């Protein structure tokens, strides 16, 4: 008996069938619960046809009965997925900073088979230093110039569906680092002391120093580890 059903798309013609073997012909099929609205099931041939009107994934139990006496039956639970049309759901992308690592996905719904992403020619370019992953839609990289960079992303599936979305990524000047640790706990004389200072923003590895004052005798500031432990 059939072990899977192909995916369909809402408001598009759908055609599939379930099949079995063995036993005595003719066969008689049944299904519970009923198929999604817009689809019909031929109980003699096992054909599923129609135009589905609802999206989502539903689970159905198909029962095949033969004509032997006594009747032999077999059941198979199958999932049926009805997808929306292929569409880019991301409507905007956040700004970045020059020299800072950037990574954002262009997200989609619907579509059949592997998706292919591209920049529509003549609509602009990604910020210098950025790349578009043609299979995942992720935009990533390290910007090398500031400014506003408009462009349009196109996504295509294997069934011929296309969708496009215009974006603009703003690349700002670098943000200076800031120390986010507001205070440090007290210590005990002759006992080990170890506290990690935290910082935000900045580019690349941060360098720590004490330009004013000094640490208590016996304490020192050390750089964070730069490689795997």
Question: How is this structure best summarized?
Answer:
This protein is 0% helix and 38% strand.
What are the key terms here?
229 residues; elongated
Task: Give an overview of the whole structure.
Helices cover 0% and strands 38% of the residues. The chain has 229 residues and is an all-beta fold. The protein has a 4-stranded mixed β-sheet with strand order 1-7-6-3, with no helix packed on it. The protein has a 4-stranded mixed β-sheet with strand order 9-16-15-12, with no helix packed on it. β6 and β7 form a beta hairpin. The chain is elongated and about 95 Å long.
Radius of gyration: 30 Å
Distance between the termini: 53 Å
In DSSP terms, counting alpha (H) and pi (I) runs of 4 or more, how many helices? 0
Summed over residues and divided by their number, the pLDDT gives a mean of 93
Please summarize the sheet with the most strands.
Answer: 4 strands, mixed
Number of strands: 18
Strand order of the largest sheet: 1-7-6-3
Shape: elongated
As residue ranges, the low-confidence spans are: none
Range of helix content: under 10%
Q: Helix-strand pattern, N to C?
A: EEEEEEEEEEEEEEEEEE
Percentage of β-strand residues: 35-45%
